[in-house]
Amino acid sequence: MKDNRVRQLVKAGKPAIGCFLGLGSPNVAELMARAGMDWLVIETEHNGLDSAEIQQMLMAMNGSDAVPIVRVPNRDQVYIQRAMDMGAMGILVPGVRTADEARAIVSYTRFPPNGIRSWGPLRASDYTLDNDDYLERADDNILVCLILETRDAVENLEEICDVPGIDVLTIGPWDLSLELGLDPRKLPLPEIEDISRKALEIARPRGVEIGVSAGTPDGLRERQRQGFTFIQYGPDYNLFVSAVNAGLDAFDR
What is the Cα–Cα distance from 224 to 89, expressed in whole angstroms? Predict the structure, then answer.
């Protein structure tokens, strides 16, 4: 099993840059992986990807150092387990509200006796060629990320961060804004920035990193200056739209 370089970086408090892949394109996944992204998240909550298409995107990242992560539709064990069996080295779970939910999610990523994941990592274990190594190392090599996007999760943040096995909590600014009665179209909002900073103060001493997003190179530098290490640049469609708009503005229609 390949070493999860991003989990090692996170545990060492070192920065890692990645991108959410919302376009569902294996070609975009391959491009981003070869360009040098540390991690890439395949979006499956808000688009129409089926399992075969997710697997194609995972295959497109082969031969690169990018760590493949799947954002599952919800915290159901089947989605989490299937993503890992197809070769994801990390899972990103939306809508978490309590420490009990976080604890259950971690258990889905661990084989007995450490959890309740069932055996069946066909592609992840190189079609049984790597069974021994995968069984020995998978529990400590899967990056477990939760999305901090609910009022309850903010209120239960300390308890969630105390759950063994949680590696990253990444801020979901749009859903969090909506849940708090704020207009996400006005992001960045001071209320969300305050939650991000407080989350960093609470999480880091407990060995959990906080993920945030940045849409520009200046934003990336600012996020690093603030102390964040798990930083999203993108998502892919935003980068594409920004590049197109910049070209059209330069053309001066």
Answer: 24
